Amino acid sequence: MDRNRHYPRCTIVGEGEFLGSFLRKEGKFQIVDMSASGIRVRSNQAFEVGTNKYMRIRLNGYVFEVIINVNGQIVRKNDIGDGFEYGFRFEGLNHKERVEIDELMRNSCGIKYVAGAKFCEDWDCMFINSRAGA
């Protein structure tokens, strides 16, 4: 996990839509990675950094359908030739919602807590197990 991040970021399969007023679809995106604090997506829609967008996120690969509706602010934008890659910071999520997203990411990426390890905040330490090498 990056030292500047509050939650672990997980590469995850999914897509979503940008929604406008009256929940009208304004475009689609593909998820690159996600955490409880934000999401990185690819889209052919052009937006500016600082723009707030309401998103419907669909996570694939679960037994049941996972849909997350959330507002996000664009904090990074990269032109990738055939579209754009955006970094969004989630806005307005309460603690319970962030914990639920965090648990989804931990379960999806094989992230574990190990209790009692030295120099860990509140005795909960996080280690990331990459399934790629397993």
What's a quick, concise take on this entry?
The chain has 134 residues and is mainly β. The chain has one helix spanning 95-109, and strands at 10-11, 14-19, 25-34, 38-43, 52-59, 66-79, 84-91, 111-115, 124-128. It has one helix and nine strands; from the N terminus they run βββββββαββ.
Word description of this protein:
The protein is mainly beta and 134 residues long. It contains 1 helix and 9 strands, in the order βββββββαββ. The strands form 2 sheets. The chain has a 6-stranded antiparallel barrel. It has a two-stranded antiparallel ribbon with strand order 8-9.
Question: What oligomeric state is this?
Answer: single chain
Mean pLDDT: 79
Largest sheet: 6 strands, antiparallel, barrel
Give the helix tally: 1
Instruction: Please identify the top-level CATH class.
Output: Mainly Beta
Percent range of helical residues:
10-25%
Number of domains: 1
CATH superfamily: predicted glycosyltransferase like domains
Proportion of residues in extended strands: over 45%
| Shape call | globular
Unreliable residue runs: 113-134
> What's the architecture, going by CATH?
Beta Barrel
Helix and strand run: EEEEEEEHEE
Span between N and C termini?
19 Å
